[in-house]
Design brief:
- One of its GO terms (biological process) is base-excision repair.
- The chain is α+β, with helices and mostly antiparallel strands and 246 residues long.
- It folds into 2 domains: 4-111, MutM-like, N-terminal (N-terminal domain of MutM-like DNA repair proteins, Alpha-Beta Barrel), CATH 3.20.190.10; 114-237, Helicase, Ruva Protein, domain 3 (Orthogonal Bundle), CATH 1.10.8.50.
- It has 6 helices and 10 strands, in the order H-E-E-E-E-E-E-E-E-H-H-H-H-H-E-E.
- The strands form 3 sheets. A 4-stranded antiparallel sheet has the order 1-6-7-5, with no helix packed on it. A 4-stranded antiparallel sheet has the order 2-3-4-8, covered by helices on one side.
- The longest helix is centred in the last third of the chain and has 23 residues, at 178-200.
- The model has no long low-confidence stretch (mean pLDDT 96).
Length: 246
Amino acid sequence: MPEGPSLVILKELAKPFEGRTIAEAHGNSTTVPYDELPGQPILSVRTWGKHFLIELPLFSLRVHFLMFGSYRIDERKEHSPPRLSLAFEEGGELNFYTCSIRTIDGDLNEAYEWQADVMADEWKPAVALKKLRAMPDTLACDALLDQTVFSGVGNIIKNEVLFRLKIHPLSTIGALPATKLRELVKQARQYSFEFLEWKKAFVLKQHWLAHTKRICPRCNIAFHKGHLGKTKRRSFWCEKCQKRYE
């Protein structure tokens, strides 16, 4: 599943399509009113967490890439029908595959809480802290994946942040010392921007210290791994250097 930083890269690549007018639209998504799209100009392309947003005069299109979604700009995937394909009067096309497409009515600023997006200029760490303090029994591995708190944080960022802060994924939020809780909020955003830089430089995996790894680089012992918490996403952790707060 693409995480917030990867969607920011898509937004930057799709920025030149702002102002272009849709000439043709088709796909196999059953939720898109394709006949209403031709003639509509793209007002803006935006992201909120793991959502890619195409703002149009009548409504907006929300693209969620789920686990295996992908896109192509000015090219198409062979032998794979798009969920949504947009061609433009000025030239160029956007194609989205194996993803969920929804329409959003009304103002996007009312539909989304931008201050929850770890990649957004509007990000408010104090708001994230307040939300975390209201969920003391939540596991750290679940809290980082809660999109109402950390929109855009995914499993890679979760594992790397917890390892960086030496926090066991089964720690409860209410048991974390105040300094650790503040660090958790800070690193969720900081690591996301580091992720963005590494992804653009094609060196992201070279910087992974815990995610999908077998040996702890600090302790030189085997990592534990398991599908933890309510989210049941894969976690990788060291029982020696990652403290369990409970």
